[in-house]
Amino acid sequence: MSETIYDLAVIGGGVNGAGIARDAAGRGVKVILLERGDLARGTSSASTKLIHGGLRYLEHFEFALVRESLIERERLWAIAPHIIWPLRFVLPHQKGIRPAWLVRLGLFLYDHIGGRKRLPATRTLNLHREPAGAPLKPEFETAFEYSDCWVDDARLVVLNALDAAEHGAEVCTRSEVTHLRRAQGLWHLEIAGQAPVVAKAVVNAAGPAVLDMLARTDGRIRNPDEKIRLVRGSHIVVPKMFETAQAYFCQNPDGRIFFAIPYEDDFTLIGTTDADHRGPLDNITATADEVTYICESAGAYFKKEITPADVIYSYAGVRPLVDDGSGKPETASRGYHFDVECDEHGLAPMLSIFGGKITTYRHLAESAVGKLSPYVPMLAGPGWTLERALPGGDFPMEGAGKLAEDFATKYPFLDSAVIRRLVRSYGTRAKNWLGKSQSLADLGQDFDHGLYAAEVDYLVTCEWASTAEDILWRRTKLGLRFTATQVKTLEKYLATSQKDRADS
């Protein structure tokens, strides 16, 4: 690394960092992406897993943000139809919170301000006559059904990093930037236990740790004007609560909202909370109070009540929101701002990102590259990231079913549930490791739940996975199904494979 001068060093392997690395590498500049842990290790894999405009943001008059998000919604679906797919949401009308006409007006705006083309429009439901009302308590009579999209958040990050690498970027996980300094118009980045990196420009996409990264920087001209507000969002996963295909968007009397979403076929994902976060940014977990709050919130709407004892898995992430002075964390803006500063000669720029949401990551990346183009001229020019599908997404927006049928024909030995998972994880790229296999035996060791050595080896060699956690919780969601014994079996295989690669 020390012999190479990169045009751009991107710090942070979350969705914004990976998106910027992809955009910049596709313009022909020499890019290195540095992530101190695994890709999507933090906030980017702890979202509610939605590509959405943010219906509740209309109430806070964030019309520009909602419009930007809604425009991106179908654009992202088009370039990643394997990991993003449409989902209908049922919003039960809760009497006494907001009048029905006001909710319907908000949904009318939601349908029309963002260029919706393929997603169906809002409709009003009589919950006592529609199947969507079956899981809900009988006091709910009316609901509104509208469209948004679901996303596998961690895979979105990995696929952006993969496309960046295929455009020539170096993607370095387990590479913590410990110190940055300017010298002779260049950035010198110290990496824990590794050779230093030299770059002409730096992007600080460290998410919740953006200010910590700035604190590790020498030679800064000024402090950024922006501040961030760290807001923790927690979620729980429970056994499937309803058979309907729709998700539910519910409003609590305290003004907060939560989603209940079909998840990984056999589960329901419920969240999120909004709480100011103070303290360390590693190993963020949902508190007992937050888990109880989510369970009680769901109990106010659904016939099937849940308690903390029913929770199979919980997770939490810290969102680095722009500090706009909002009184409550749930009202803080989900918009984003950039801070760009250079040395006294206008060289060695650093662009720091404050705020953002997963839905706007691609547009944020394009805007960030535009901000840096005066300093790195090769970055100038029109955007390109909507012209090329993310890896595996090179099929029609509504073609996942046809792709699954093709895989079922070519690989008849695979269970239909496994094929569904592979299509929704890898799209057309699944054939890269399924190859010419004729039977399950050709896929190598069976770790159960449809995970075989061929897939594990692919994730290690092509997608930067190195631990069982990387594979079971970020590259796949099979951690929900694996027992402790099965996890140990996978860990043993990875250790042996790593040793074999080192010996060779």
What is the CATH architecture annotation of the largest domain?
2-Layer Sandwich
The counted number of beta strands is: 22
Unreliable runs: none
Global outline = globular
Name the helicity range: 25-40%
What is the CATH homologous superfamily assignment of the largest domain? Answer: D-Amino Acid Oxidase, subunit A, domain 2
CATH class of the largest domain: Alpha Beta
Brief digest:
The protein has 504 residues and is of the alpha/beta class.
Characteristics:
flavoprotein; 22 strands; 3 domains; DAO_C_sf; ten-stranded mixed sheet; 30% helix; FAD/NAD(P)-binding domain; oxidoreductase; 504 residues; FAD-dep_OxRdtase; EC 1.1.5.3
What this model shows, in words?
Its EC number is 1.1.5.3. It catalyses: a quinone + sn-glycerol 3-phosphate = dihydroxyacetone phosphate + a quinol. The protein has 3 domains: 159 residues, FAD/NAD(P)-binding domain; 168 residues, D-Amino Acid Oxidase, subunit A, domain 2 (D-Amino Acid Oxidase, Chain A, domain 2); 104 residues, Orthogonal Bundle (Helicase, Ruva Protein, domain 3), CATH 1.10.8. It starts with a strand and ends with a helix. By secondary structure, the chain is α/β, with parallel strands linked by helices. The strands form 4 sheets. Strands 4, 5, 6, 7, 13, 14, 15, 16, 17 and 18 form a 10-stranded mixed beta sheet that branches. Strands 8-3-2-12-20-19 form a 6-stranded mixed beta sheet. A 4-stranded mixed beta sheet has the order 1-11-10-9, with no helix packed on it. Helices cover 30% and strands 23% of the residues. The chain contains 13 helices and 22 strands. Helix 1 runs parallel beside helix 4, helix 1 crosses helix 7 and helix 8 crosses helix 9. The longest helix is centred in the C-terminal third of the chain and has 20 residues. The radius of gyration is 23 Å and the shape is globular.
